[in-house]
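Propose amino acids for all 94 sites.
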């Protein structure tokens, strides 16, 4: 399943369009994602650890390998204030 994603550079994320729909439908999946994002932000801040973020924009499935710099209740913040809405993230791999 994860090999269906196109690898892009983090700088390209700023140019993407994100629909309003949630990609994860089950609350349990959303809760697990939030927990993993919290772990990823800690690893990013402490060790500059990169993660793979699997998400969807309006054109299809994408993946970016980067450090997460910040986390809000609605978004993941990458370097240079590049934003990925949490509602569009399918999975992350630490």
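Proposal:
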């Amino acid at each position: 399943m994860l090999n269906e994603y196109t690898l892009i550079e983090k700088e390209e994320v700023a140019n993407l369009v994100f629909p309003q729909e949630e990609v994860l439908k089950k609350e349990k999946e959303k809760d697990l994602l939030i927990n993993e994002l919290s772990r990823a932000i800690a690893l990013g801040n402490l060790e500059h650890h990169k993660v793979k973020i699997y998400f969807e924009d309006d054109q299809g499935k994408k993946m970016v390998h980067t450090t997460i710099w910040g986390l809000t209740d609605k978004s993941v913040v990458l370097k240079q204030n590049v934003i990925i809405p949490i509602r569009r993230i399918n999975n992350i791999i630490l």
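The helical segments are 10-13, 27-47. The radius of gyration is 12 Å.
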